[in-house]
Amino acid sequence: MRAARRGALLAALRLLLVLVALVAFALWWRREKEPDWRVDQRLRLAPVRAGREAPSANLGGEARDALVLRCGESLRYEFRVPGDDAQLRFADGHVTAHPELAVRLLLPGGETRELERHETSEGTFTLRRVALPAAAGDAVTLELAALDGRGRPGLGEVYVADVVLESDGRGVDQTESQIAMRAIERDLLASHEQGRSLAPPTRESARIGVEGPPAVALEEDEPFSAAAGRLPPDARLEVVLHVGRKRDSGPTGTVVVQVLVDDAPLEVLATDLEPPPGGTPPESREVSASLDLGPFAGKSPVVTLRRQGAPNLWVGVRALDVSAPRLVPRRHFVSGNGRNVLLVVVDSLRTDRLGCCGWPAAATPVIDSLAARGGLWTRVLSPSSSALPDLASLLTGVSPLSHGLGVWPRVQLSPRLPTLAQSAAWSGYTTACFSGSPVSGPVHGLQRGFERCDVSRLPADAVVERALDWLQEASQFEWFLMLHLSDPTFPHEPAPRDLAALPGPPPAELVTWLRALDSRPGAAEAVAFEVGSCYDAELAGVDRALGRVTDWLAARDLLRSTLVVVVGSSGEEFYDHGGRLHGQTLWDEVVAVPLVMAGPGVRGADGGAFVEGEPISLLDVTRMLGEYGHLATRSGQQGRLPPPFGPRLPEPVFHALLRPLPNVTARDLDASRTRRWLRLFDHARGVESLFDLQADPHATHDLLADPGLTEDERKDARHQADALAASFADWARASLLVSAAQAEPLQTGRP
Fold this sequence. Notes:
Blueprint: H1 2-33, E1 41-44, E2 52-59, E3 62-70, E4 74-80, E5 84-94, E6 100-106, E7 112-119, E8 126-131, E9 139-147, E10 157-168, E11 178-187, E12 197-198, H2 203-207, E13 214-217, E14 224-227, E15 236-245, E16 254-261, E17 264-272, E18 284-292, E19 302-308, E20 313-329, E21 340-346, H3 365-373, E22 375-381, H4 387-396, H5 400-403, H6 420-426, E23 430-435, E24 452-455, H7 460-474, E25 479-485, H8 496-500, H9 508-517, H10 523-555, E26 562-568, E27 573-574, E28 580-581, H11 588-591, E29 592-598, E30 610-612, E31 616-617, H12 618-628, E32 654-658, E33 669-673, E34 677-682, E35 687-692, H13 711-737, E36 743-745
């Protein structure tokens, strides 16, 4: 009996040893095949001794910020290794003369140990990884030396880019970080008995004959007071004032608003309606201030606002909130239960140029494959036709009249408007934005909510490379990542390999149509190459860069747990109505963009992929991202769940606008659309147009300017135009009532 037990025990022990060996082998094999699968730390290195800078060095159509080393020159790096299993990662390449690159470890006493020497690739960047014989905490000096093919100084130059130290195991990212956010602790207006009144008309509200936004009027002899409740540590008072004219003429001067806490002066806010240099006086202004309440922490004071001066100015309190920081823990990603969100915003994206939408010359297999396993909306209508107002609307879920970006000059996004990134952070996601367009950056306030916001003017490949670096660390958490890619915008300068990837020349129908516009020999072919092949190749480059991200996710079994959303910020006009580019008109080719969604929960009524031709709003995309990305519902309040997830409305109406902005556009346009009708109104020229999209899909025949209509047809057209005009006025009125657009930060001064 004992012998049998001993035999069984030995057999179990042997089985356990075999299993341990198999697991160890599997881990070793995975590490060998995928050396960066568990990188917890990444340290971008700056050289102690640098080569010549070559910003956006272009090798084979791939642009990177690089350093140039002539053969015989070297880069030196000094650093302390933060973790175990350190390796140096970099990219290199050359143009001529086939140089080599050596990686050397400089030892104490002047000795040198060569870790690797390799030939660099011609005309392209190649990613390299070199293991370092160093432990965590070791001080290391490395050298990258350029040599000719015989290991000596000579001809040729090496481009070196993105030098990064990767290490494993002992980084700060192993501890759960917390995201610091500010939250509204108390709304002092909501709890106050004093009613709100409508401000005098603003420039935009005067267009449609309504008063300005609601606010609590602040009179000189009637100060406003409210109990702030018990103040938490690091509390701040967020104030927004609306200042307008009481009368059409007369002096205005400067209005002063004194802020008191328990009758003790805190700050003095002063503003006026003086015109900018060489400009016209504004009708109104919204100003904001964020005031420190730290000295009153733990107390329950009364906040008082008292105005003085400028009797011809109307002053109202639009917002008065107590805010305090909160720490939101990141959620660790759990395979099978976690969810990530990848939002890809592409500027100048035309619906009709995607392969999944039927364009024969398209090279967009990645976007097409996402549409094939999820959903495709072919007519998403933006509220404007330029990147700034449309991106702001996508990130906030409100119209340009509410957020103000791209409508009024010198406006930043109001802190009162939560963004998708903030909603994601409140939900426990770690967040980042990598952008090839400055629109996404802090100049307009659109970086709010992103823990990391990397804004450059780089092409899609370089933007994606930086995003993949971030994902190496972020993938241990649930993450929200936005990529803003601007490659398809003018001028069209595609990479040669993306031109070569196109299935053929521009379709003959495009050349024939362009020849009708310009019959000079060769003119149509030249334009077709620009708006056909070059544009399609840039879109192919975006698709290829997106493929790098989806391949990276698929290799780590993360793609099926990631909601992938690809949407255009605006379209692009290719002489469809005689114009070019975007941001100057409101035709469908610049307002209608595609939307592709794939991931958890995105399926049609039959459980499979779907194509939806029903017009939806870009604000609806914000709402869908909140719902299907499991984000806290703090943005997207003006959108709806569109078909097939929500009901089909009988005749939905969608609106868009352009307003004159210095150095951007002089156009002043409104547009209203249904499935059948399009109404355009040009305020500068006083011209109104109406198009029947059912009979005239390309909107070339203006019914209001057609003298051949019968009397009944003319009455019907006039009735339809008036109905769309009234709908636009209702939309503008509703947007202005929740407007947070004109709040400019004030310089505050203590009394």
